[in-house]
Specification:
CATH architecture of chain A: Alpha-Beta Barrel
CATH topology of the largest domain in chain B: Rossmann fold
Oligomer: heterodimer
CATH topology of chain A: TIM Barrel
Number of domains of chain A: 1
Shape of chain A: globular
Number of helices of chain A: 12
Structural class of chain B: alpha/beta
Radius of gyration of chain A: 18 Å
CATH superfamily of the largest domain in chain B: Response regulator
Distance between the termini of chain A: 27 Å
Shape of chain B: elongated
CATH class of chain A: Alpha Beta
Helix content of chain A: 40-55%
Helix content of chain B: 25-40%
Strand order of the largest sheet of chain A: 1-2-3-4-5-6-7-8
Number of helices of chain B: 7
Largest sheet of chain B: 4 strands, parallel
Order of helices and strands of chain B: EHEHHEHEHEEEHEEH
Order of helices and strands of chain A: HEHEHEHEHEHEHHEHHHEH
Number of strands of chain B: 9
Number of strands of chain A: 8
Number of domains of chain B: 2
Largest sheet of chain A: 8 strands, parallel, barrel
Radius of gyration of chain B: 22 Å
Distance between the termini of chain B: 25 Å
Structural class of chain A: alpha/beta
Strand order of the largest sheet of chain B: 3-2-4-5
């Protein structure tokens, strides 16, 4: 078990503007796919998330992919959803991850299985994301399992959660963040941000309650690869808010150049997010497009040491 | 109440295939109220089976019977007595009724004619909605009278998730977000301060996860 703090925690505690990215694990048992992604991202991010069967599509497990990232010299953030594991499995995985030196844990509810390729599956949701945060924190800080028995060697983990300023009802999003912070969220990754005005309104609520002082908020950024992708996300992906102006802007350039325009939009967004009080870093989610991350990081002048 | 609906006719026909004498048993309980296994449905299903069998030149004799409640052993005597003159019992009761009949039917085969869907309420004529998952530890006092386990697609006790949009659940624009309903009720009843209370993990041992449940009331024994 690693007793040292994760690179992400150290970066944030040092007051540096953090950059994290996301690597979706492969739909097979090829470790080299993860290694390739690690090589692209290394040196450009403080930590890298591995998603946990995102959109309910079966992939290599987050813990294994995190371990591979760590072997490649990246600080990994293990995502854990409540959809597929009960409290016994969740706690077991937390211990397993910590024993492998995976020191960041991101707790999420998880997309409903109807979205994936096994819509017939039974879902678990024994715990919800807030309860999972509390369970993880109690294991670490009090050396107690959810059932009350002692943990013999508590997991050294930096615990995070997600927030979606664009989900409904809007008025509940700040109180919901407060619940997550109370449950143990030390850092927060937000849903991707395009609508800066609405995000700023959310952040005002966050600051008014002093939540930005109690947790590190990483603003989510997704580079858009094309106008088609932007339109799809705006229409189909739950909890995303992409102003029509961005879609028009992408449509305004020829197809070949839309990727570059998408990167430009991401860089501009990051520059604006850096000015938002309470934002302590960015989380770049370049979905199956990890090569975009180094370019965005360089253009946004966020290159790591 | 328990809400059910008739199984596809081809499934029912396959269960009773080769049986010449069929006892078709309806129930005056929940399935009558939800129009799945009452007197009328017994008549209609009997006609459908008879017609189907005639077409195949394999006629059958159907005896129809209505029971007060198939889920109560006190009312099963007549049904079991009549079963003796038949090859099979086809029950239009809910799964509790079908099982109690099976447990008391000796060597007689018992088949279900309906799918038991959920415990629900009537929204309007012909429309029912699920309301209870029988978790055995009612949460309604804490959630404005709306059940998070049933009405939230993920049964989140501390919702909503990020998939709530315009009052609808991420799984379908037809499905209301259970947590939007809860928040609206908390708001309407002046209880929004309750929202930030963290609800602890449920004790699922009181639910089916603890094994098949049994309720004993000494005062009624």
């Amino acid at each position: 078990m690693s007793q040292t703090k994760s690179n992400l925690q150290t970066t944030l505690e040092a007051g540096k503007f953090a950059v994290t990215a996301e690597a979706g694990p492969p739909r097979g048992a090829k470790p080299e796919v993860v290694r390739e992604k690690a090589k692209i991202l290394k040196g450009f991010v403080d930590a890298c998330n591995v998603t946990d069967n995102q959109t309910s599509v079966v992939r290599m497990c987050s813990m294994a992919a995190c371990k591979i990232l760590q072997e490649e010299g990246l600080d990994a953030v293990m995502q854990m959803v409540c959809r597929d594991r009960n409290r016994i499995a969740a706690q077991s995985d937390i211990l397993g991850a910590a024993s492998l030196g995976i020191a960041n844990l991101l707790c999420l509810s998880g997309d409903h299985q109807v979205f994936g390729d096994h819509p017939q599956a039974k879902n678990v949701f024994d715990l919800d994301s807030i309860q999972l945060l509390k369970v993880a924190k109690t294991m670490r800080d009090e050396s107690k399992f959810a059932g009350g028995k002692d943990v013999d060697g508590p997991p050294a983990i930096f615990i995070g959660a997600v927030a979606n300023p664009f989900a409904d009802p809007f008025k509940i999003q700040v109180p919901r963040l407060a619940k997550k912070v109370a449950a143990g969220a030390q850092f927060i990754q937000t849903q991707c941000i395009f609508n800066l005005d609405k995000f700023e309104e959310f952040m005002k609520g966050v600051r008014d309650r002093g939540l930005d002082k109690k947790t590190y908020i990483l603003a989510g950024v997704i580079p858009l690869r094309s106008a088609t992708m932007a339109e799809y996300m705006a229409a189909k992906v739950a909890g995303t808010d992409i102003p029509i102006a961005y879609i028009e802007r992408l449509k305004g350039v020829e197809k070949k150049k839309q990727k570059q325009e998408g990167i430009k939009i991401a860089v501009e967004t990051i520059q604006k997010l850096k000015e938002v009080k309470g934002v302590r870093g960015v989380h770049i989610m370049a979905i199956e497009w990890e090569e975009a991350v180094p370019e965005i990081v360089q253009q946004a002048k966020l290159v790591r040491k | 109440m328990i809400v059910g609906e008739q199984k596809p006719i081809q499934d029912i026909m396959s269960y009773v295939d080769g049986c010449e004498r069929i006892l078709l048993a309806g129930c005056h309980g929940c399935v009558t109220v939800c129009c799945a296994g009452g007197q009328k449905e017994v008549e209609v299903l009997a006609s459908m089976i008879e017609l189907g069998r005639k077409k195949r030149h394999q006629p059958c004799k159907i005896t129809k019977i209505m029971q007060e409640r198939q889920c109560d052993v006190e009312f099963l005597e007549e049904l079991i007595a009549k079963a003796k003159d038949n090859d099979v019992i086809l029950s239009m009761a809910c799964a509790a009724g079908v099982q109690l009949v099976a447990e008391n039917a000796g060597s007689m085969k018992v088949f279900p004619a309906i799918n038991t869907n959920f415990i629900g309420a009537i929204h309007e004529k012909g429309v029912w909605g699920e309301r209870c998952q029988t978790c055995g530890d009612c949460k309604l006092a804490m959630t404005g009278g709306i059940c998070p386990i049933t009405r939230c697609s993920k049964s989140l006790l501390n919702g909503p998730c990020g998939g709530s949009k315009d009052g609808k659940c991420e799984i379908s624009p037809e499905t209301p977000c259970g947590w939007q309903l809860i928040i609206d009720r908390l708001d309407a009843t002046g209880c929004m301060d309750q929202y930030e209370r963290i609800l602890e993990p449920a004790d699922w041992s009181k639910s089916r996860d603890g094994g098949p449940r049994k309720l004993i009331r000494e005062d009624l024994k």
